[in-house]
Amino acid sequence: MALVRDHDVVLDATGNALASSLLATAAQAVGPGLGHVVVAACVQRDGDVLRVDRLPLRGKERHLPALPLLDDDAHPREQGCGSPVSPAPPGAVIAAAELAHRVVIDEATRACTLPATVAEVRYAQPEPPYDRVGRITSDDAAPEA
């Protein structure tokens, strides 16, 4: 809680579900408003999708739907920790970092012009709205019925 409360922006690039969940909970508890946000960045589908979410949501905002996890049994495992070894190319990781920093700068300068989710689809996925290449945002997604 103190990490989020004592900083305007916290960037979560851990790739760890527990750490991300704790930061999301802290962001929600501290509450919406200018500052005190968590920006969570991730590389999904072996670098095919780059995603950045800002928490907490403001007003009627929503995030893009989550991409289902794929079976990772085919991926190699690191010795000792049991974590999957990411086959994402370095260029995808650099592009995700750049996207995350755009959101961090937007929040840190208090411009607050970017939506709750910004994603870059590098290779189309079967699931909409990730089924087309290019940038998509939570503002682009159809409203829930």
Tell me what the structure shows.
With 145 residues, this protein is of the alpha+beta class. The chain has a single domain (2-71, 90-137), classed as 3-Layer(aba) Sandwich (Rossmann fold), CATH 3.40.50. It is 26% helix and 19% strand. A five-stranded mixed sheet has the order 1-2-3-4-5, sandwiched between helices. The longest helix is centred in the C-terminal third of the chain and has 19 residues, at 90-108. The model has no long low-confidence stretch (mean pLDDT 87).
CATH superfamily: NAD(P)-binding Rossmann-like Domain
Count of domains: 1
Low-confidence stretches: none
Which percent range describes the beta-strand content?
15-25%
- Strand order of the main beta sheet, please? 1-2-3-4-5
Derived structural class: alpha+beta
CATH architecture label: 3-Layer(aba) Sandwich
Q: What is the share of helical residues?
A: 25-40%
| CATH structural class | Alpha Beta
